[in-house]
Design goal:
With 223 residues, this protein is an alpha+beta fold. Helix content is 28%, strand content 19%. The chain is globular and about 55 Å long.
Length: 223
DNA sequence: TACTGATCATTC
DNA sequence: GAATGATCAGTA
């Protein structure tokens, strides 16, 4: 039984609020999906379960999870200190000049314009089925956050345009970084080089640093 | 312990 | 291969 897509943001928020405090086991039971024994072989399972519970479109296309209301869904793994345990994947990095746009038209900005964050307990000491879902909230970047994202994006994008991709590593970017995003280190995709556009390289993704998502979390907790 | 680079599953 | 969903695991 598929849950219909939410028609409004309020409807989505209500559904997400109903998940708060529930364990992953409870939600999996409700949706009649099995809990994986080993998370290593089910890395995206929690995200997929949340999509299932909330009626996300559930495609592998580069569009928002809730395309009718233009909201992106992100789960946020939280450790015992209440901090994000991992960085947050945003989207793949365009590596050819013709795929690169301005910040205003970038996939990063489009994806992060409206996000439903769902904190999920993610301490290794808690077995996967017993981990609980937290209080979800909808977020848009405030002017400071947008400026930080934009500055990092423009710096990294300029480097790609100049053919300096090989020089980029995860140390660049205060809040937004670029890291490999591939099946393995041997994966290849086309990329532009300083000579033109004939190079191949490992596919990359944009990620939000945990310090950034922690600030988002704090801004939205207790209000 | 935090962070970076590597990896896992699935769909189209 | 490229998009989605992410977490793993070695090392600084």
């Amino acid at each position: 039984m598929q849950i219909p897509a939410p028609r409004t943001e309020a409807e989505l928020l209500n559904r997400a609020a109903a998940l708060a405090g529930k364990s992953l086991w409870q939600l999996a039971e409700t949706r009649q999906v099995p809990v994986p024994a080993r998370q290593k072989q089910a890395k995206g399972w929690i995200g997929a379960l949340m999509e299932n519970c909330l009626g996300a479109t559930g495609s592998s296309l580069p569009v928002p999870d809730f395309r009718e209301i233009q909201v992106e869904l992100k789960t946020l793994p939280i450790n015992h200190l209440g901090k994000p345990r991992e960085s947050t994947y945003v989207c793949t990095v365009p590596l050819t000049r013709e795929a690169i746009t301005s910040w205003d038209h970038s996939v990063v900005r489009l994806k992060l314009t409206r996000v439903l964050w769902i904190p999920v307990e993610a301490d290794p000491s808690i077995p996967l089925p017993r981990r609980r879902v937290g209080n979800a909230f909808i977020w848009s970047p405030d002017p400071d956050e947008e400026q930080q994202l934009r500055a990092d994006w423009e710096e990294l994008t300029e480097m790609i345009c100049l053919g300096e991709l090989d020089y980029i590593n995860a140390r660049f970017g205060e809040v937004l970084q670029i890291r490999p995003k591939a099946a393995n280190a041997r994966a290849r995709t086309r990329a532009c080089t300083d000579e033109g556009e004939w190079g191949t390289t490992v596919p990359r993704g944009f990620y939000l640093r945990p310090t950034f998502t922690y600030r988002i979390l704090q801004r939205h907790s207790g209000c």
